[in-house]
Amino acid sequence: MTLAFVFPGQGSQSVGMQADIVTAFPQVLETYAEASDVLGFDVRELIQSGPEDRLNETINTQPVMVTAGVAAWRAWKIAGGALPAMMAGHSLGEYSALVCAGSLAFDDALRLVRRRAELMQNAVPAGEGAMAAVLGLEDQAIIEVCKRASGTGVVEPVNFNSPGQVVVAGNRAAVEKVMELAKAAGAKRAIMLPVSVPAHSSLMRPVGDALAEALSEATFSSPEIPVVNASNAAAYGGEDDIRGQLTRQVSSPVRWVDVINYFTRRGVTTVAECGPGKVLTALNRRINRDLATTCIDSPEAISSLLAGANG
């Protein structure tokens, strides 16, 4: 087995997540405590009790998801899990991957993603941005539909998640136009997502410019485990490369299909989603059905992956 770990981003959070992992591996409570000290609120309480609308606020979701990813990684190591051959993260998940690969301190990651969340939340006036998932069209067809809708406003493909699933983002009117045109072009479905921030679109370029200042103050080192960035599906280099990629990441498409293909070209046979939810696991199965895929979101899943890794 050649193992890769992937870390989910915003959207995989839920009230009560990781309760079983904390019960089985109480040491990870230290991870929640560290995050609480940095963020100034009780992270464990928010995760376990909500309220859901507060957990789903971008400014809270982003650092909480990094915390959850790191907690799952630490549980894996406590259980005796081996180091994976490489890592990646979907959007926000790249910060979790960089922490777990030894490139970025956990507390620095929390401060960075909170700043990232603030900038993203304030980048576009409320109600003016939107994101939608288009299902059942080829990538090139969606690119063409976005070009046709661009007279209505900015709209671009921003997440190439799996064959037949692409997310578009931009000005709300233009996103609505893409949904209309995509359905006319034969899309099975076009679904508006419950997100007001047009993440990874060119509307986010000012966010990257402002985030660059915060990134310049954080300390990075070359990852101890290769981390594949999802903007160009290549392994991060040294400190300058990481800063540059994280700056561009907020306004560049997530090329998740290319990330999984990068893994398989380098001999990865098993991809484990490290964190709550199973969003990436479902995408990975659609991208390559020959890959073994799993999500270590419970003690039983950790035990099962350990047995396979040690078998």
> What is the approximate shape?
globular
**What is the gyration radius calculated from CA atoms?**
19 Å
The helix/strand series, from N terminus to C terminus, equals: EHHHHHEHHEHEEHEHEEHHEHEH
For the biggest sheet, the summary is: 6 strands, mixed
Rounded to the nearest angstrom, the distance between the terminal CA atoms is: 9 Å
The pLDDT mean sits at 96
- Supply the helix-strand structural class: alpha/beta
Percent helix range: 40-55%
Please report which band the strand proportion falls in: under 5%, 5-15%, 15-25%, 25-35%, 35-45% or over 45%: 15-25%
User: What's the arrangement of strands in the largest beta sheet?
Assistant: 8-7-2-1-9-10
Which residues sit in consecutive blocks of at least 5 with pLDDT less than 50? none
How many DSSP E strands?
A: 10
Number of helices, counting only DSSP H or I runs of 4 residues or more: 14
What would you say this structure looks like, in words?
The chain has 311 residues and is an alpha/beta fold. Helix content is 50%, strand content 15%. It has 14 helices and 10 strands. Strands 8-7-2-1-9-10 form a 6-stranded mixed sheet, sandwiched between helices. Strands 4-5-3-6 form a 4-stranded antiparallel sheet. A hairpin with a 2-residue loop joins strand 4 and strand 5. Helix 2 packs antiparallel against helix 5. The radius of gyration is 19 Å and the shape is globular. The N and C termini lie close together (9 Å). The mean pLDDT is 96.
